[in-house]
Design goal:
There is one protein chain. By secondary structure, this protein is an alpha/beta fold. The chain has 5 domains: about 20-70, ADC-like domains (N-terminal domain of TfIIb); about 80-145 and about 450-565, Rossmann fold (3-Layer(aba) Sandwich), CATH 3.40.50; about 165-430, Dimethylsulfoxide Reductase, domain 2 (3-Layer(aba) Sandwich); about 575-705, no CATH class; about 765-915, Barwin-like endoglucanases (Beta Barrel), CATH 2.40.40.20. The strands form 11 sheets. Strands 5-4-25-24-23-6-7 form a 7-stranded mixed sheet, covered by helices on one side. It has a 6-stranded mixed sheet with strand order 32-34-33-36-31-35. A hairpin with a 2-residue loop joins strand 28 (about 655) and strand 29 (about 660). Helix 8 (about 230-245) packs antiparallel against helix 11, helix 8 runs parallel beside helix 14 (about 400-415) and helix 21 (about 725-730) runs antiparallel to helix 22 (about 740-750). The radius of gyration is 27 Å and the shape is globular. The model has no long low-confidence stretch (mean pLDDT about 95). Its main location: other.
Length: about 950
């Protein structure tokens, strides 16, 4: 009898001879990764189980980093354009020549007109550094990509409550019992959210997803609200109406921790109308319940009264709570009044409001944790409302997005569910009051640095970035009457404004990782025309373009000088508490990247290039006392730069009086080595008694001072009523010295309401909703982040092309079948694309994956690659300006408060057409400086 023997298999062969731990950059999660090395090459990437962000979890993108690092589309050397813009014709040059060219172009600008440099960066994670460089150069024209992506969410959160979602805060995953997501696509914070959702499911907590599209997180939600795009704010305010009507709001929380009891001037004839009553120290006043008298909101022992009014000099001052009740108890917010517009039945709105109330108040949590608040009152316990929310681009990228985000913050504050057990929690360095943030600065002086930080949070008209004649000081027109609170700048307007010479001409456009010639432009074809347009002399209207990227993206072909960047495994990076750290709600944390491999091409870390370029240009922050180069490279800057004494880019392992310390301390030459030894990150846990109630908890405030987040405690109350917005309204009403142009008075009075409002998307008033009845959206897939993903040999197999998804109603009405194509038309353009059926979709909405489609010749892909033949962009249908309306104006397709690009307001019409050979439009192929990749991407690591 023969016995069958199983083959002897080694199920865990050694995959490496060394592990180097660093930080992923395949999306914005900033997960910790273990990079397995074999014979000095990258062999395998896995999650780092010790890392605070992902705890070992790694997604498909993170694992595919090995293909990103070895992508055939990597740039190989500095390039100088030798053919026309857009041709892709370059010659390789040395770094010395490249830096000589850049210096020759930029040095005269700095000495004569620094504003003629426009320096804008894309999705990098070094904004505290790049903004510092631009500030030293002296140009007012700097911003990053937030105006595309998230400024509505960030600004609404910071003005309302000192922080927002995603990088600023997260749900209390271990204690929340009801979790609602609004407009969250799968690419953002995906590993922490997936881990968090798993914990919720394990504990039996409920998840409600609010999104026109049921994919990803919404697909695993217990309840899906397939809302009509752009109506989230109306839905949220209907929930607020129901909660207030039922008395299901946390009155004690509102009185103690918000400006609901603060008194507001009610005299409509006064220049102070709508502003807070203040004491001689400028502190907002409340009525003390115990004494019935006026008191500063933060006076020790005061118990603010939500009801009492104050009358003085013939003027009645009412608490914000009165204004809230008047507005949101209005029947226009009742479920029946909003249901049809939102695409949600009234009963469902009522049921969700009831569920929020039940969980918040009937299932409240009490923790036996003693803490002292900012008024000096000792509390024996912490009360938690176990309802939490999370939101992102889906509600942000609308022209009503700022007020919608504010409405969501209002909702969670009324429930008392922010910074409490079970609710939404801030991540250090947040929470921060608006008062601690800078205002924007824009004074350019030849040969000198700018007069302060470019970006910030205006408190009123005096903080706008305007020249003495009232014209915009910035090329993107950020911080003007058109969009006064544009805290992240408006990168999407730079090229069109520069091309129009409005408000002035620039000389050099300097961009980093911003694919403006393709998917990062609202108006792709128009942008290409602007980049290549010439004047009557045959010179380019935008004279010079310098661009840095790691890969042969579509934008490369339109630049005059290319400074090739490294991949994320070949560089130093600083994920800093000064910028966008990796903190969690119970710990302050930052991280680095470091060169786990050296480049095999003639490329350099872009930030190191800026260190050398800054020295060549004699920028004060980049030259030493003898005029030499202050920082040898970015690693040197990370180690030795101090933003102020004792505070540098990294908080861990600094030098104190008695040796190593954390938070505050002098530079430590071995700091990066300490980070590398620790897995690439530093984490400082918040004491248990300081982990909740952070804005008001003196234990947290003192801890934050010790770690270097504040110089002194900064307790504050939440701003349900945002007084800076009222200051802009007052100007529009004719008060004050700085006045808006007449054409904008009504817009400012309407949209800059200090209490959250809802108004229809601006495109609805410009594009005929009957001619264009369908909403069109894009989402980023979980397997992609930005343009990089669809050149990745592994990730391409998941998303090699993208259809336009149609709901059952539209699919049936037009008689579509599998394999059909549609012509999709907007007020601006048309595309012809493949379609697919999706039942779990708002019935008047179509959508597709973002940034899958590629330009022929880019990214080292073959011209017949599916991304270039069946992949497409909705961008061809969008414009950075709204269509003309007969008033002689072209209004920006942006939120009128912040200037955020209103990508998701797009309306279209659809018709079935015969299938073309390729998705339309087809743009001519561009020549790639790196050619095309091999048919099969293979290599061998080790033996």
């Amino acid at each position: 009898m023969t016995h069958h023997r199983q083959p002897e298999l080694d199920t865990s062969p050694p995959v490496s001879d060394e592990i180097r731990r660093t930080t992923c950059y395949m999306c914005a999660c900033r997960c910790g990764i273990n990079v397995h090395m074999k014979d000095g090459k990258v062999a395998y990437i896995e999650g780092n189980r010790d890392h605070p962000v992902n705890r070992g979890v790694l997604c498909a993108k993170g694992s595919a980093g090995i293909m990103q690092h070895n992508a055939p589309s990597r740039l190989r050397a500095p390039l100088k354009r030798v053919g026309p813009r857009g041709s892709g014709e370059f010659e390789e040059i040395t770094w010395d020549e490249a830096l000589d060219i850049a210096t020759d172009w930029l040095a005269p600008l700095r000495e004569t007109a620094p504003e003629k440099l426009a320096f804008f960066t894309g999705r990098d994670q070094s904004q505290s550094f790049t903004s510092y460089w631009a500030q030293n150069f002296g140009t007012p024209n700097y911003a990053a990509h937030g105006g595309f992506c998230s400024v509505n969410m960030a600004a609404a959160g910071i003005y309302t409550m000192g922080g927002a979602f995603w990088e600023f805060g997260s749900p209390d995953w271990e204690r929340t019992k009801l979790f609602m997501l609004f407009g969250v696509a799968e690419d953002h914070d995906s590993n922490p959210i997936k881990m968090g959702l798993a914990r919720l499911k394990e504990r039996g907590a409920r998840v409600i997803g609010v999104n026109p599209i049921r994919s990803g997180y919404n697909a695993v939600a217990d309840d899906w609200v397939g809302i009509t795009p752009g109506t989230d704010g109306l839905f949220i305010l209907s929930l607020v109406h129901e909660l207030m009507k039922a008395g299901k709001i946390d009155l004690d929380y509102l009185a103690r921790y918000t400006n609901a009891p603060v008194l507001v001037n009610g005299d409509a004839k006064s220049p102070e109308h709508g502003l807070f009553l203040r004491d001689d120290d400028g502190k907002p006043l409340v009525i003390d319940r115990a004494t019935g008298k006026l008191a500063a909101f933060d006076k020790p022992g005061v118990r603010p009264d939500l009801h009492a009014t104050h009358r003085a000099a013939g003027i009645t001052h009412r608490p914000v709570m009165h204004l809230l009740a008047e507005r949101y108890l209005d029947p226009k917010y009742a479920p029946e009044a909003v249901a049809e517009r939102c695409g949600i039945c009234a009963d469902k709105i009522r049921r969700i409001a009831g569920e929020l109330a039940r969980v918040a108040f009937d299932e409240a949590i009490t923790l036996d944790i003693e803490w002292t608040d900012f008024r000096g009152e000792l509390h024996q316990t912490m009360t938690g409302r176990p309802v939490s929310f999370h939101a992102m681009r889906g509600i942000s990228a609308h022209s009503n997005g700022f007020q919608t985000c504010r409405a969501l913050h209002l909702l969670q504050i009324l429930l008392g569910s922010v910074e409490v057990p079970g609710g939404m929690r801030f991540k250090p360095p947040y929470p921060k009051p608006v008062s601690i943030h800078p205002a924007p600065h824009c004074k350019a002086t030849p040969g000198q640095p700018l007069d302060g930080p470019h970006l910030g949070y205006p408190r009123g008209p005096d903080d706008l970035a305007l020249l003495e004649d009232g014209s915009p000081a910035r090329i993107d027109k950020a911080f003007t009457w058109d969009n006064p609170m544009s805290a992240h700048g408006m990168m999407h307007m730079v090229i069109s404004n520069a091309h129009a010479g409005d408000p002035y001409r620039i000389d050099t456009l300097f961009m980093y990782m911003a694919n403006m010639a393709w998917n990062s432009s609202m108006n792709t074809r128009g942008t290409l025309e602007m980049l290549t347009d010439t004047d009557e002399n045959g010179d380019y209207v935008i004279p010079r373009i310098i661009y840095s990227d790691s890969y042969s993206s579509e934008m490369v072909a339109y630049a005059d000088l290319i400074l090739p960047d490294t991949t994320y495994l070949e560089r130093h990076d600083c994920i800093s508490l000064l910028d966008r750290p990796i903190s969690e709600a119970d710990a302050a944390a930052d991280a680095i990247r470091w060169p786990v491999v050296e480049p095999d091409r003639d490329v350099r870390c872009f930030q190191s290039v800026l260190c050398e370029l800054g020295a060549r240009l004699k920028l004060p922050g980049f030259t030493d006392g003898e005029g030499g180069q202050k920082y040898a490279d970015y690693a040197d800057y990370i180690t030795n730069h101090e933003r102020k004494p004792g505070i540098g880019p990294l908080a861990g392992w600094r030098m104190g009086e008695n040796g190593l310390t954390h938070g505050r301390g002098a530079p430590n030459e071995a700091q990066l080595d300490a980070y590398i030894k620790n897995g690439g990150f530093f984490s400082a846990h918040i004491p248990e008694a300081a982990q909740y109630m952070k804005p008001w908890n003196m234990g947290y405030q003192e801890w934050a001072v010790g770690i270097g987040l504040f110089d002194a405690p900064q307790p504050y109350i939440f701003e349900l009523y945002v007084e800076p917005m009222r200051r802009f309204q007052l100007a529009a009403e004719g008060h004050g010295e700085r006045q808006p142009p007449d054409r904008l008075r009504e817009q400012i009075k309407t949209t800059l309401d200090p209490l959250p409002i809802w108004y229809p998307a601006l495109e609805d008033g410009h594009a005929d909703p009957e001619e264009y009845p369908v909403h069109a959206l894009t989402q980023r897939p979980m397997a992609m982040y930005h343009s990089w993903g669809s050149q990745n040999a592994w990730l391409r197999q998941i998303h090699g092309h993208n259809p336009l998804y149609l709901p059952t109603k539209l699919w049936t009405a037009h008689g579509f079948a599998d394999g059909d194509w549609a012509r999709v038309t907007s007020h601006h353009g048309e595309i012809t694309v493949p379609v697919a059926h999706m039942a779990a979709l708002n019935e008047n909405t179509v959508w597709t994956w973002n940034a899958i489609g590629k330009r022929k010749g880019a990214w080292a892909l073959e011209s017949d690659a599916p991304e270039a033949t069946k992949g497409f962009l909705l961008n061809h249908l969008i414009h950075e300006l709204l269509p003309e309306r007969g008033d002689g104006m072209r209004w920006a397709n942006s939120d009128p408060v912040t200037g955020q690009a209103a990508w998701f307001d797009l309306r279209v019409k659809i018709e079935k057409v015969a299938a073309p050979e390729e998705a339309q439009p087809v743009l001519p192929a561009i020549e790639s400086p790196v050619g095309t990749g091999p048919d099969e991407l293979t290599w061998k690591v080790g033996e």
